[in-house]
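Intended use. Records like the one below are meant for learning the mapping from a protein sequence to its folded structure. Do not use them to infer anything beyond what is encoded.
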Amino acid sequence: MKRTPIIATLVLLFSLFIGFAHAQDATVNINTADVTTLASLNGIGDSKAQAIIEYREANGPFASTADLSKVKGIGARTVEKNADRLSIE
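Structure written out for the chain above:
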């Protein structure tokens, strides 16, 4: 009995699991993102995403990702939870 197909299948499955474990969410540019993209952030729903866009339109682009906490309803904790996904470029 040949074991090559079984070993090849196990290697393939292992590779798939490793790939999923290391997959990261995409970075979100808070100066250009739309409502749907902003709502994908942890703790940000459609209404907060819309508030981000309205703040951005009224005050200009964010100078830093920490400035996101200036938007009503978004605190420093929410910014911290999403820090690895946020960008301004």
